[in-house]
Q: What sequence folds into this?
């Protein structure tokens, strides 16, 4: 009795606090309440990403004796396809054995009822109600919106080390790409908690307390989904990219990369067949060409070279050179196609003289070109609000020394500078950089960090907070120099390479066509598209702005392996301008002609934008 009394005193007095805490934890359980993910809208309020509730059939591997046998037995109750098994196996490899993993999602009411009747046969298997992300427009704007996916092990470790670890308790999914990833904090919301009283067997008895979850905020994009759809439809089956910006604010109006992919495939965990199809496709649908695709700018580089010539004093507006159709340097001949005779600065842009810019590049030198183009954003990260941006290449002697290993490769040769003047050589930029530089040019040097998100709407207070692109220090361009280059670009649409494309346009615009090599053709060989494989043909480019006097839109577009800029990229940009400035959409006849590269000026009766609803999900 003395021993019992001593033990009782020890437990009741000395161990009381710890045992009381343990007893309380055994009696209660803290269950996280996962918040609804925030919506994503376009600038006009069209829903681009939303949620819906559905039942999932889930297995906890650690509570199942024979996993394969259990799945085989379950397949007799509900439909379990081979792709469901493959996805489950992949999730199992990425997760811990005590985690509940879905074997089937989006069960029908009939399937739920069938399993409920057989529930007692399947320990470790249960039905859960979960919220699923849905992208109602499928492939449309998928590179911008991104997608969510199941949290993998590396992401789990990163979350556990962050200050948001508690907020992700119970959360299985996270933003993986695009706006879903970059605005994850805003979209996720605040996790709630529920305190449950449990029996000795672990069964919930009653709810003691609850703190509701706060849904994620609504993210409003600056893109117009109608314009986005128009551009993606105009590309058809062709590859390429287009970026349209508001030069006064840096807002992105359209951000197109073709081909695209369906983000809904990734929500439950993409199956092996679809992943292999996307990953191994020669067209690379997972590549965000507007953000990560780098290309030589071709002749679209000439307006910037012209501005550099004026600002550095290498050329005056009246100074002319003779264009015989070729330029010889160091015994090497750089050909231009055809002779233009006397060419001044304006005519060099309107008629796209290569010889003018061969000479200019030679006189300026690679480092002077680099120093002028760098502040315009060429070869630099723009700071756009989605991850994964590629810097591209703006060459300089320093760049070559640090890029190559062998001494003979590190040396910069004077002949390498010549082709830089016409946007070839080592030059490689993204369409985002080209569009941003165009916006900076036509705004007289004012620069912005481009933004895809326009505002964040607080789900609780309903207050909208603008997300403005950071205004960078303006470039000190002389207004008369900017006006001269813009006037020359307007001349391109009046008497230059895009005259037919912009015939009859109800607004004044400026632009520049470009044709860029996809592969290097020997100097003694003539370019012949019909004799080259499709992926080796030249790229078609076009940059533009409008209205010419007070620009409200700046665009850069590339159609891969499509040839001359005036036949493919420029007609596409014309329809973008028609939509944004005149409220016009191409006729069905015109749409097909542009897709096939058979239209310049619009054909058929255009449709009014006001007559159409938003694209149907």
A:
């Amino acid at each position: 009795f003395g021993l019992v009394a001593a033990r009782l005193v020890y437990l009741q007095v000395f161990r009381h606090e710890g045992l009381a805490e343990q007893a309380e934890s055994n009696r209660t359980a803290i269950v996280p309440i996962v918040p609804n993910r925030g919506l994503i809208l376009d600038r006009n309020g069209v829903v681009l990403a939303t949620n819906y509730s559905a039942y999932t059939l889930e297995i906890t591997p650690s509570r199942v004796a024979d996993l394969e046998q259990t799945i085989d037995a379950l397949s007799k109750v509900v439909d379990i396809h081979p792709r469901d098994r493959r996805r489950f196996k992949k999730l199992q490899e990425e997760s811990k054995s005590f985690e509940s993993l879905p074997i089937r999602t989006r069960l029908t009411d009939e399937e739920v009822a069938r399993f409920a009747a057989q529930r007692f046969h399947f320990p470790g298997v249960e039905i859960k109600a979960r919220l699923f992300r849905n992208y109602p427009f499928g492939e449309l704007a998928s590179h911008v919106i991104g997608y969510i996916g199941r949290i993998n092990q590396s992401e789990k470790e990163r979350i556990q080390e962050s200050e948001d670890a508690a907020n992700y308790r119970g959360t299985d999914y996270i933003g993986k790409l695009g706006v879903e990833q970059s605005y994850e904090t805003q979209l996720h919301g605040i996790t709630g908690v529920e305190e449950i009283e449990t029996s000795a067997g672990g069964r919930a008895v009653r709810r003691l307390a609850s703190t509701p979850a706060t849904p994620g905020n609504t993210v409003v994009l600056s893109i117009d989904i109608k314009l986005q759809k128009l551009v993606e439809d105009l590309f058809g089956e062709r590859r390429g990219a287009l970026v349209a910006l508001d030069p006064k604010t840096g807002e992105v109006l359209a951000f197109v990369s073709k081909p695209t992919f369906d983000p809904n495939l990734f929500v439950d965990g993409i199956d092996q067949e679809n992943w292999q199809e996307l990953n191994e496709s020669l067209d690379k649908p997972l590549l965000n060409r507007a953000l990560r695709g780098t290309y030589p700018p071709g002749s679209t580089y000439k307006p910037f070279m012209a501005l550099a010539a004026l600002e550095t004093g290498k050329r005056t507006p009246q100074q002319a050179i003779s264009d015989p159709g070729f330029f010889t340097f160091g015994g090497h001949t750089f050909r231009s196609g055809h002779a233009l005779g006397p060419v001044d600065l304006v005519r060099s842009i309107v008629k796209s003289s290569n010889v003018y810019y061969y000479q200019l590049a030679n006189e300026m030198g690679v480092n002077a070109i680099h120093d002028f183009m760098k502040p315009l954003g060429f070869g630099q990260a723009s700071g756009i609000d989605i991850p994964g941006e590629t810097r591209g290449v703006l060459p300089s002697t320093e760049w070559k020394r640090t890029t190559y290993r062998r001494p003979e490769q590190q040396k910069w040769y004077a002949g390498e500078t010549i082709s830089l003047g016409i946007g070839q050589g080592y030059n490689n930029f993204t369409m985002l950089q080209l569009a941003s530089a165009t916006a900076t040019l036509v705004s007289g040097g004012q620069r912005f960090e481009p933004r895809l998100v326009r505002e964040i709407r607080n789900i609780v207070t309903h207050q909208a907070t603008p997300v403005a692109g950071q205004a960078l220090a303006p470039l000190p361009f002389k207004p008369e120099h900017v006006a001269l280059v813009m006037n020359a670009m307007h001349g391109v649409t009046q008497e230059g390479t895009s005259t037919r494309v912009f015939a009859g346009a109800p607004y004044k615009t400026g632009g520049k066509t470009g044709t860029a090599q996809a592969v290097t053709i020997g100097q003694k060989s003539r370019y012949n598209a019909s004799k080259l494989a499709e992926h080796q043909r030249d790229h078609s480019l076009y940059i533009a702005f409008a209205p010419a006097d007070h620009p409200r839109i700046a665009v850069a577009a590339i159609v891969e392996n499509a040839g001359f800029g005036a036949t493919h990229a420029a007609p596409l940009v014309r329809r973008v301008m028609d939509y944004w400035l005149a409220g016009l959409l191409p006729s069905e006849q015109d749409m097909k002609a542009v897709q096939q590269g058979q239209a310049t000026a619009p054909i058929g009766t255009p449709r009014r934008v006001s007559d159409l609803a938003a694209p149907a999900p």
Q: What stands out?
A: The CA atoms of residues 212 and 308 lie 59 Å apart. The radius of gyration is 30 Å. Residues 479-495 form the longest helix (17 residues). The chain is about 35% helix and 20% strand.
